[in-house]
Amino acid sequence: MDIVIVGAGIGGLTAASLLLAKGHRVRVLEQASQLGEVGAGIQMSANAVKVLKAVGVESTLEEKGVKPEAFEFRRFNTGELLHRIPLGISHLERHGACYYQMHRVDLHAALVDTVLMRQPGAIELSCRVQSVHEEAHGAAVTTSDGRTFKADLVVGADGVKSVVRQHVLGADKPVFTGQVAWRVTVPTERIAVDQRPPVVSTVWCGPRNHGVMYYLRGGRLLNFVGCMARPWEEESWTSARPWQELSDDYTGWHPMVRAVIESADRDQCYRWALNSREPATVWSTERVTLLGDAVHSTLPYMAQGAAMAIEDAAVLTRVLDGPNLNLPQALKTYHEHRAPRTTRIVRESSEMGSLYQIDNAQEMRQAFHDRNIAKSRNEWLYPYDPLKVSLQ
Q: pTM to 2 decimals?
C-alpha cells in the first residue's frame, strides 16, 4: 500500500520502519524543518524493546542505553525505601528482553536511520498538515503550503495536538491535568561520588510532588524529571524557567535530589505542562487511523508513553500484513485490540501520580504495600509482546 504517516516522532518512525520492511511504500510528513527530538530521558521495558529489536536498533540500545537494576520508590526527604521492582537480569529472564534507559535523541536518530536505509527520501520535512480528506478508494492530506499527499492509508502519529485526530474523532482539545514536569540533565561527573545514586530508576515520592532520577548515555548523564501540582498560565506547553523556581520546588528534598539540582545548568531548566484526553475506544475511519499520543496521551508516571506508541506501530503493521486485506476491518481489529490496554495504562498512570504524591508518610507506606506495583506490572504490563500477541 501507499501509506502516509503524519509525524516523525518515535511512534511514527517505528511504524514507518516496520511497514517498509513489509514492502509498503511510506511517506512520513514532519512539520519541523529538521529532524530532532525534544525532552531527555526515555525508558523502554521489554514490551517495547522486543519491537525495537525487530526494527533493528538493538545495537543503539546496547551502546547508548543504561540497564537499571531496579525501580526504587523512596520517600522524598529520608530516602526510606517504599517499594522495589527488580529489573536488570530479572527483567530479561522473566520477560525475554532487557530494560533500557535512553536519551530520546539517541533512539530517535537510530529510528531515522532505519527508515532512510529502507527507503531513502521517505521523510518529508516542513510539512505541516492542515487537513485530511477521505474518499471511497483513498485518503489524502493537505499541508499548510498547499501540497497534497495521496495514499491508501493515513496514519496520525502527530502527538497530543494531532490534526489527524480531528478528522477521526472531532475537534476536541487536550486538557491541562494540573500537573507540570521539570526536566534537567546533568553530567554525572559534576556530582560528588557519594551523592550519585546507584544504577536504578529512583522515584522520590513526596507531598503533591515527586521526582524521577536515572542515568543516560552509559551513565555519563543523570536525568531528573520532577512532577508536581502547579497552575499553568503560559501559552507554551514547554518553556525554560529560572533555576531558582526549580530549586524552591525541591527545597528540603533528599541530598541526592539536591545534588542534581545544584549541579544543573542555570539556563537549562525546562518545565512542561502535562496534558491529556479521555481515552478513545474508536481510533479509525475506513482509511485513517491513529497511534501514540494522538489517541492515548498519558501522564508519564508508568514510563510507558513511548512504549505504547511502539506497541501500536507493531500491531498496526501486523493487521496490515497478508493477502486479501480488508482495510476497514483491519483497522477495526487494530483499535479494538489496542484500546483496552492503552486505556488501562492511561488510567493507572493517573493513579500512580496520586500514589507517589501522598502527603502522610504512613499512608504512603500502606498504599505501596496494598498496591504491590511489582506484582502487577510483571503480570500484565511487561509480558505483553506486540509481535506475537493474539489479535483475535
A: 0.95
